[in-house]
Each structure stands twice: as structure tokens, then as C-alpha cells.
Amino acid sequence: MDLPVVAGVDGSEESLRAVDRSADEAALRGAPLRLVYASLWERYEGSLIAQEVGRPVEEVIARDVMGAAERRAHQRRPGLVVTAAVLAEEPEVALVNESSLARLVVLGCRGRGGVAELLLGSVSLSVAAHAHCPVIVLRGRPEEPAAPGRVVLGVTEKGACPAAVRFAAEEAALRGVPLEAVRAWRRPAHTTAGHPPLSGAPAPAQEEATEALEEALQDLPDGLRAQRRTAEGPARDVLVDASRDAGLLVVGVRRRSGRFGPRLGRVAHGVLHHARCPVAVVPEPV
């Protein structure tokens, strides 16, 4: 079965960006595109309004939005196979379910009900935390064109998730751009930047970071341009800084069970809120 690229659509400007990006991603992979609009409209609309139009108003709007989204996808990528679904479900539940039979999910950073001051919409954050496949969240300002730059892979203290390394390598190869693996490191509390243990020598933590990068990238495909970079500082800040001129930032997540189910780690959560380019969250299979 040819798994589709899935895009969450709700009529917002952010979701239109998701339609464009998902169409590009599907075309790159030779995959079909599936557009999904999900809402529990019957929970919020009275029966009188629904009787007047024969269907809930939200459903009428949804089908209009989906028609426009389908036309937009076909105009952007002629010949692309596009299907659409309007579902009476909570958006995050529907999209997580869709992710179990998708190769990729693409989302705007906030939806139609988002507030400008919010860093990331709750639907995007929830889907990124629970999806069964990689999720691309379209961070960055809407007015800024998508950068054609390198793919950045974040390597944490626990090492790189193999699934994230594969995804980042595939994305770089598909786009014909370099892959840059970045690993943050911190000096021990008892040393200072001005007085390293041995003058001119790399700190042990920096050496460990360099070794971690080499280990993470040891199985890259031949011919892929790969760069390795270590930087001193908190991992979130280092990766956010790396995202400023990148085309895509990739982070792997190992699912952690919390009181309310699986959740993202601090680094993934932080870059989803602050990155300056699209972020791909790649789950490591259990």
C-alpha cells in the first residue's frame, strides 16, 4: 500500500501553508496526498441551525474549505493524487489516527482558533507528541519564504534516534542539500569558559559531543553531504540558533509515559515552540 502524506486543514492561513508543504512533500516522494478536516461540530451547534441548512453549519464550511484546499494542491502540484476527508472527530484524535497509516503528517503551527501570542497550537503539539509517523510542524513566519537550505539533525545527550537519522538523511537526499548534525555540550559547573582544564585543548564534554556525532552518522548513505558541528550551550538554544537559516530541523523523540500519556522531551518541546524553520518530529519505534 502506498502510504500518503497527510495534511491537517481547517481553513486558516497556517493550514494553507500545510497544504502547500504537504503537496511538495508528496510530490518529492511520489506519494498520494490526503487532506483531513476534523471537528466535533455537533457538540457546539444547536439543532435549529442544523435543521435550517440540512447539515451542521461547520460541516458545510468544512466541505467548502476542503474543496478549496484540493484545488490549491492540484494547482501547486499538477498530477498529484489527492483525496480529502471531513471527519466528525476531535482534530488531534483524528490526525493521530490518520498517522498510523501515513508516511508523514504536515501541520501549521496553530489553527483557526489560535491566538497570535501562543507559541504553538495545542493540536499541533498534541499530534507531534502522539503520532505514529514523522510530523512536520511549519514553524517560521508565514511571510518568510521556505528556505532551500540544509537539513539540520539534532543529536541529544542520549544520542540520535536511528529513525530520526534515517529521516533527516532521506530529506537531505530528496532535496539535494547537505545534512548538518548538531550536538550541544556544556562545561562542568566547576570550570569556566575563560579557564578550560587545559589551555587550547577541547573540553572533555566537547570531545564526547564530537564522538556522539560520529557514532550517529556512521551509517549514512554514500554520497550524502554531511557536516558535523558541536556548540556549547543548552541543547534547545543551540538547535533554535541552527534553525535560523535551515530548511528543516529534525529531532527524534523516544516516547515517555507521563500522567496524561506519551509526551515530548524538553528539547523537542522547546524547538517546536521557538524554531525559525519547519520542525520534523520523528518518533523512535517502540
What would a concise description of this structure say?
This protein is α/β, with parallel strands linked by helices. It has ten helices and twelve strands.
Mass-distribution shape: elongated
Please work out how many helical segments DSSP would assign: 10
Structural class: alpha/beta
Q: What is the helix fraction of residues, given as a range?
A: 25-40%
Give the SSE order as H and E letters.
Answer: EHEHHHEHEHEEHEHEHEEEHE
Strand content: 15-25%
- Mean pLDDT reading: 83
Low-confidence stretches: 43-50, 111-119
Oligomer: single chain
Number of strands: 12
Keywords:
286 residues; alpha/beta; 10-stranded mixed β-sheet; two-stranded antiparallel sheet; 12 strands; 38% helix; elongated
Any overview of this molecule?
The protein is an alpha/beta fold. The protein contains ten helices and twelve strands. Strand 6, helix 7 and strand 7 form a beta-alpha-beta unit. Helix 1 packs across helix 4, helix 5 packs parallel to helix 6 and helix 9 packs parallel to helix 10. The longest helix has 20 residues. It is elongated, with a radius of gyration of 21 Å. The two termini are 22 Å apart. About 6% of the residues have low confidence.
Question: How are the SSEs ordered, and which strands pair?
Answer:
Elements: E1 5-8, H1 13-29, E2 33-38, H2 41-44, H3 47-53, H4 57-76, E3 82-87, H5 91-99, E4 104-108, H6 122-130, E5 135-138, E6 151-155, H7 162-175, E7 179-185, H8 204-216, E8 226-232, H9 235-242, E9 248-253, E10 256-258, E11 261-263, H10 266-274, E12 279-283
Helix pairs in contact: 1-4, 5-6, 9-10
